[in-house]
Design brief:
Blueprint lengths: L2 E5 L3 H12 L3 E5 L3 H10 L16 E3 L10 E4 L6 H8 L8 E4 L12 H8 L4 E6 L4 H6 L3 E6 L3 H11 L4 E6 L2 H23 L4 H22 L3 H4 L2 H10 L6 H10 L4 H5 L7 H16 L4 H10 L5 H9 L9
Parallel strand pairs: 1-2, 1-4, 2-3, 4-5, 5-6, 7-8
Antiparallel strand pairs: 6-7
Helix pairs in contact: 3-4, 7-8, 7-10, 7-11, 7-13, 7-14, 8-10, 13-14, 14-15
Amino acid sequence: MKRAGVIGGGAWGTALAQVCVRAGLETVLWAREPEVVAGINESHENPLFLPGVALEPALRATHDFADLAGCDLVLAVAPAQFLRPTLEAFAPHARDGLPIVLCAKGIEQRSLKLMTQVLAETAPHAAPAVLSGPSFAGEVARGLPTAVTLACPDEALGRRLAQTIATPTFRPYAAFDMVGAEAGGAIKNVLAIACGISEGRGLGRSAHASLITRGFAEMTRLGVALGARAETLRGLCGLGDLVLTCSSAQSRNMSVGLALGGGQTLQEALAGKLSVAEGVASAPAVRELAARLGVDAPISEAVAAILAGEIDVDTAIQGLLARPLKDEME
């Protein structure tokens, strides 16, 4: 594999394009925004989503999906709620068997489908894989040490992809459970909003640790009900990503929760943000999936209710604390 395409010119897409260039791949990044394409090609910077981060001079950006037609692998990094139309537009340029690595973390709100299901419907001739794990775009773009999960049902292809994009500071660990990798990445965004709310309300570190732990139990229950393996969720794409996203205001989802916990409305919390907080769109989908599958997901349900304006923050907190006591392993 010598040539990589990256679909999506946001912070995470730009960071992964940096990884590909550093791994020795000729890399083309497709972006919707003209200023992103111009900034990368002319000044080696993404002025909208990663300002101040010097990009590799070899990285090239484009508006035209046709420029990705000859790639040996493609990383699809468009936000989850926009992935379907983006893949539909790219599909005519994708050869049969092209590895498409899904890097968005979310559940399609309208259909309640995971990104692999969206890919199967829009580019069924592609070879799917999922990349997920604890990773902040700015840190990855700067070359700071990061480890992620790269899940692919084709064992040989998965290992080849991991070896292809690995660098001295970016370590993809091969796995074969795509549902587990997707479930962890999507659900942790919702739980990060909960942790942000707790932090914004000043509930303390004990409450924060409890939310992460009980949230992980919730993630595991729902992931397994979707078809994931519990051990996958104990790895980088589940527990690892949950710990990172719930522990830093760098997380877009936690920052939304911080604003809500501090008394802002959802509209105020999202105002002026260019990057997408995937958990806001995924929360109602997670709540509905849990209900359909008969899975107890009280934290995700509370977050979805707050975002929908059905209850206020304090009522949600009181509701969680008033739940009947139960055995921890239930």
